Amino acid sequence: KRFKSRDQPRVTNNNSSATSFQIPPNDVEVFSSSHHKCLVADPLTPLDETLQHGSLRVLLVGEGDFTFALALKRCYPSISLTATSLHTEVEAQEQWGASTSLADLKHPQLHPAVRILHGIDGTSLHLAPFGGEQFDCVAFMFPHCGKKGQIHLNRQLIRDFFISVAPLIAPGGQVEMAVSAGQGGTLADGPFLREPGNSWQVVEQAASGGLMLTGVSAFQAALWEERGVRSTGCWRGMPRGTSTQGFKYEGGRVHVFHMEGPGVRGIYPPVFFRDLTLWADNWEDPRDDGDKVEELVNSIKHLACLTFLDQNAVSEVEVLEVWRRLSDQRCSVHMRMTYFNDEVALNW
Prior knowledge:
- By secondary structure, the chain is of the alpha/beta class.
- The chain has helices at 67-75, 89-96, 99-105, 151-165, 202-207, 221-226, 290-308; strands at residues 2-4, 20-22, 31-32, 57-61, 80-85, 114-118, 135-141, 169-179, 211-218, 253-259, 270-280, 314-324, 331-339.
- The strands form 2 sheets. An 8-stranded mixed beta sheet has the order 3-9-10-8-7-4-5-6. It has a 5-stranded antiparallel beta sheet with strand order 1-12-13-11-2, with helices on one face.
- Strand 4 (57-61), helix 1 (67-75) and strand 5 (80-85) form a beta-alpha-beta unit.
- It is elongated, with a radius of gyration of 24 Å.
- The protein starts with a strand and ends in a 9-residue tail after the last strand.
- Residues 1-30 and 49-53 have low confidence and may be disordered.
């Protein structure tokens, strides 16, 4: 017997200890649970009061040729920009062709309030020399481990980023991450949606750092390219400087995250299945007794919801099978619990 609080489609995820699916909103293309705007998706986004607190403090992680940092500063001259790169300055210039962009960004008259830092590991941001500064917006544009087809490494990369970035987020601040079409693993990928096991599962990775997905926007590749942004991500085995080395921006999505807390509601929360077994004394088969089944299900849901901090976290409890031990007539009851939470960052 199955007891549900809502109807939901099931999508299995074979790469985790718990299977999961997502709750689809009405709009699967671009969706937001709040009024917060995405800064890096569209160069025409106005810096209104939802993004700007005086001078907006922006941190860019993982820059390569710094063309995006330069374009962002040109679009929004008032922001205070810190742009970082994993590479040394020499590597950025020689391997990524960043000389021109860096020279422009360092020009104090053309672009004030710009700080360039090299050798910054995006998975260890809490160790970076920011001097205790926090940021209103932290953006990681199209992260990649540098190896083709290594989904588990990309998941690890962004999971470590989300964990390390948490202390750098100012109150009310947000984290934005752009990924290529289908990599995000949410229904916002639209026509590019992949099987869950073939995505980066950004929502689950962000939960490791206490962050919840609050919005998704389409990355406006053509508009950014008009402003000088180049795609220079390098695939394994492809020579630098070729037109085939860049990431594919078309169909990309920018995901906006906020720290879990009062007033923050997540979108596309992963839904998990957990199996549990308990012993019931002096019972006939509980599936033949509707009252006992309902009592059992309500008890499990009550105890589980105390753990998940939301009375609606458990959406279903299903009795799968019952075994009776002949020696003492005790029943072993095997159940499957389905749960999710859009107010708390849950992962595996």
